[in-house]
Amino acid sequence: MTALDVVIMAAGKGTRMKSSMPKVLHRLAGKALVQHVIDTARTLKARHTIVITGHGADQVEPALLSANPNDNLQFARQMPQLGTGHAVQQTVPLLDDDAVVVVLSGDVPLTQANTLQALIDLCDGQQLALLTIEFADPTGYGRIVRSPSGQVHAIVEHKDANEQQRAINEVYSGIMAVPAKLLKPWLARLDNNNAQQEFYLTDVVKFAEADGVPVVAHKITDVAQVAGVNSPTQLAELERTYQLRQADAFMADGVRIIDPARFDVRGTLTCAQDVEIDVNCIFLGSVSLGQGVKIGANCVIANCTIEAGAVIHPFTHIDGEKLGVTVGEGALIGPFARLRPGAQLAAEVHIGNFVEVKNSTMAKGAKANHLAYLGDATVGERVNYGAGSITANYDGANKHRTVIEADVHVGSNCVLVAPVTIGAGGTVGGGSTITKSTEPGALSVARGKQVSIANYKRPEKLAK
Fold first, then answer.
1. Of 45, 94, 111, 439, which residue is most buried, by most CB within 10 angstroms?
2. Is 409 a catalytic residue?
3. Residues 265 and 398 placed together within one structural domain of the fold
4. Same domain, 142 and 184
5. One of 36, 48, 313, 370 is an active-site residue; which one?
6. How many domains does the chain have?
């Protein structure tokens, strides 16, 4: 089997983005543009992935090394940037003669692996294979010039094309597959005798023809697969294209998405049968939704597992970050709830409006229905946690744990000062500040004695 080396061009400035960030680091679906291309190379099982950097290399290279610690990425610097051919010339010392080289662009994120595999198969280790497409308006693109027999004869850049050539609708996508043993001598023969005084990679076509190497084209019709990003507008358009395709794929598997135009996956989402998702929901990181899960409108959900039958009411924010969040079967969350890293909720737990849970476990049937905070807590089965109550888990230097055992009732506006344990079946009276552990079954009240002054007269405003 022929080895595969992928070369990704990512050296451009991206002037039209009007940003201090290198263009290839701008994000689509929560991921850098160039990261999508690297992920595709991984799917193709590339032996080497070589990223050509230039503008902003001191930002691009560390970012990609951090995001891909196990991929053994290689980098080639292009300084200054003198065209696509000059860019690929920088990779020659890193290319082995036994490889097929696939050249991709770091700002073209949605090329599919099966499309590239078809291109590689067409190359067959012997031919120069080009990915092409027809545009109604091909302005700005290199035209595919064919001989009368239909063979690819040349690629002519728009600025160098004559009137007849500009009438051609088939254009070069910027993606090719070529044997390294052929590519390397062709790169050495490039010159910059053209309208832009740049070294065009597309000139390898004329060298292939001169050397008797067949030039073949794999023509596709899916514009999104070859669409590049040069401006914020194009980035937004491609984002929506990506998200609509994601929505279509989920709906094909039976997920009910109320409005595909208001649905965003910026990570990995898996859905079991009969999942329902309302409008304006955003999924980030790794999210798993069990059978029959219902997600209300305007939720942001990241890095969590939501088990079968759970309902996430509107405007809920869940983010497990590195610790993750688990929502058990049949749980009811929200509206306006917040689950933070380490929240582990068992079956039938209720978390209501304006309740925050962080690094806490809640056993089956526990409830915190409104205006409460549970941080660093272990909550037993069937606990009822009152409105306005909090666990005071931080002493200014260290975090401490609160244990609330099964069947405890915590009244409203209570402060449980950790470390503390509320014994099973106990009750904490409303407004109490609990600083010592309580016995099982006890009623604990810790608040100032009520004082009432009869016939009290309120102060009056002084006359001016």
1. 111
2. no
3. yes
4. yes
5. 370
6. 2
> Which CATH number covers residue 93?
3.90.550.10
170-179/128-134 β-pairing: antiparallel
Tell me the C-alpha distance between 245 and 440, whole Å: 56
Q: What is the pLDDT of residues 210-266, one digit of tens each?
A: 999 999 999 999 999 999 999 999 999 999 999 999 999 999 999 999 999 999 999
pLDDT digit string (tens) for 72-100?
899 999 999 999 999 999 999 999 999 99
- 133 burial (CB, 10 Å; 0-12 / 13-18 / 19+) is buried
Q: Which domain holds residue 207?
A: 3-226
Residue with tokens 């205006």: 371
Tell me, yes or no, whether 284 and 207 share the same domain: no
**Whole-number Å distance between alpha carbons of 396 and 404:** 22
Give the containing element (helix H, strand E) for 60.
Answer: helix 57-67
Query: Residue-wise over 280-307: b if at least 16 C-beta within 10 A, else e?
Result: bbbbbbebebbebbbbbbbbbbbbbbbb
Per the structure block, which two tokens stand in for 59?
């930002």
Query: Dihedral angle at the C-alpha atoms of 60, 64, 67, 70, nearest 10 degrees?
Result: -160
d(CA 213, CA 227): 28
Give the CATH number of the domain where residue 338 resides. 2.160.10.10
Q: What is the DSSP string of 232-299?
A: HHHHHHHHHHHHHHHHHHHHHTT-EES-GGGEEEEEEEEE-TT-EE-TTEEEEEEEEE-TT-EE-TT-
- 280 and 205 belong to one structural domain: no
Please give the single-letter amino acid code of residue 293. V
- Tokens 């009137």 correspond to 163
DSSP letters spanning 36-97? HHHHHHHHTT-SEEEEEEBTBHHHHHHHHHHH-TTS--EEEE-SS---HHHHHHTTGGG--T
Do 203 and 269 lie in one domain? The reply is no
234 within a domain of the structure (yes/no): no
Asked, for residue 104, whether it belongs to a domain, the answer is yes
Is residue 67, in this structure, part of any structural domain at all? Answer: yes
User: What does the alpha-carbon distance between residue 31 and residue 390 come to, in Å, rounded to a whole number?
Assistant: 37
Estimate to the nearest angstrom the gap between the alpha carbon of 351 and the chain centroid: 27
Domain presence at residue 449? no
Mean pLDDT of 362-391: 98
Separation between Cα atoms, residue 374 and residue 419, nearest integer Å: 13
DSSP 96: -
121-125, 180-184, 358-362, 455-459: least confidently modelled range: 455-459
On whether both 174 and 219 belong to a single domain, the answer is yes
